[in-house]
Structures are given as structure tokens and as C-alpha cells.
Write a structure and sequence with these properties.
The protein folds into 2 domains: 93 residues, no CATH class; 82 residues, Arc Repressor Mutant, subunit A. Strand 3, helix 3 and strand 4 form a beta-alpha-beta unit. Helix 6 crosses helix 7. It is mainly α. It has 9 helices and 4 strands; from the N terminus they run H-E-E-H-E-H-E-H-H-H-H-H-H. Strands 1-2 form a two-stranded antiparallel sheet.
């Protein structure tokens, strides 16, 4: 989606040297399928680079063969589009956001993640923000206390104290709910829901 999306997608498809099908949807989204015998990671990077020079938002499904693959990759790109529209990254691959894309489409799941994992962190004014920042840094550092401390400019002891506070507020060890907690934190960063094209 974005200004001259059709032209940018066409240029990207031509640069890959494959066949392409480009369709403008009724909601101003541009759908494009690019086909070639071998479709590798470099090809996805090339396709993703077209949004770097324009105000485009690009959602990419994963390569898959045949008619069933054509449908699957389209559905994946449609599921990833809300992430591209709401998030910081303008180019989003489905394989990188599959779980968050599921949360976006499921109100019960989104509300439950917020209530179970984010609301409990807000016991004191301003404290929840600090705990969220620490938890995000902890997950971004592959659950390294030292790495999280370095990323946010605090000592490892401070990180350890904040993690202990988070565990106390959540009522369970982070290790027992890490995947759900990390997903809730990622979803929260998306912000409000914009209108999304089908």
C-alpha cells in the first residue's frame, strides 16, 4: 500500500526476472505475485528493498509452489499487512510476524494477552513502562540479563530486580510464560488499529 505502489511492485518484480501478476484491489491495496523457478532469500530481500525508497508498506508471504502455494502466500501477505501498516517496519515478511499477525486478527487473544501479561505490570504509576522496557530488552537479548542491562543502560542487578518484580506481579516465573509475555509485548508496540485493506 502507498503512493505508486503498483509501479514500485512492477519494478521490483521486473528486477527479479520472473513472471508477475499485479492487481489493484478495490481498497487501494496492490496485490502482486512474482513467480520464478528458484525463489531464494536474496529475491525476498530485493523485493523488500522497493519500499525503502518510497512511502510504501509492503507485506510479503512466503514463497510456495503451485496454485495452493499461490493462495497460501497471498493469505500470508494479507495477514502480515496490518503489521506493516501499524508497526515501525515498512516491509514485513509473514514468517517474521506470524504469531503477532494472529493476535491482530483475534480480539479475544489480544485482550487476554493484555489482561494476563501487561495489565499486571502496571501496579504503580510509571513502573509498568520501566518493566516493559526491561522485559523487551531481556527478550531482545535472548534472555540475557547482562545483555538487557547493556541495551537499556542499567546494571545486571537492576535488570534482575525488575525481572523479579515482573514475576511477582505476574504471579509466575517468566520462564513459564516467556512466549506469551514476549508476544504480548510485541503486540503492544503496534499501537492503534488503522483501517486495513483485505
Amino acid at each position: 500500500m502507498g503512493p505508486d505502489a503498483e509501479g514500485a511492485i512492477g519494478e521490483g518484480a521486473r528486477s527479479l526476472g520472473g513472471a508477475s501478476l499485479i492487481v489493484r484491489s478495490p481498497t487501494d491495496a496492490v496485490w502482486a505475485w512474482v513467480g520464478k523457478p528458484e525463489f531464494g532469500r536474496e529475491d525476498l530481500d530485493t523485493l523488500g528493498s522497493i519500499a525503502g525508497s518510497a512511502e510504501l508498506r509492503l507485506a510479503i508471504g512466503e514463497p510456495a509452489p503451485g496454485l495452493a502455494g499461490w493462495r497460501l502466500t497471498h493469505d500470508q501477505a494479507r495477514a502480515a499487512l496490518p503489521i506493516a501498516l501499524r508497526g515501525v517496519e515498512r516491509v514485513v515478511r509473514y514468517s517474521h510476524v506470524a504469531l503477532v499477525a494472529t493476535v491482530v486478527r483475534d480480539e479475544l487473544l489480544a485482550d487476554s494477552l493484555r489482561r494476563l501479561y501487561l495489565d499486571p505490570l502496571d501496579d504503580q504509576p510509571g513502573r509498568g513502562r520501566q518493566l516493559r522496557q526491561t522485559l523487551r530488552a531481556y527478550f531482545d537479548a535472548d534472555r540475557s540479563v547482562s545483555g538487557a542491562g547493556a541495551a537499556i543502560g542499567v546494571t545486571r542487578q537492576t535488570v534482575a530486580r525488575r525481572l523479579a518484580t515482573a514475576e511477582e506481579r505476574l504471579g509466575r516465573p517468566i520462564a513459564h510464560c516467556a512466549a506469551d509475555l514476549e508476544l504480548a509485548l510485541r503486540f503492544e508496540l503496534l499501537g492503534p488499529t488503522p483501517p486495513v485493506a483485505p
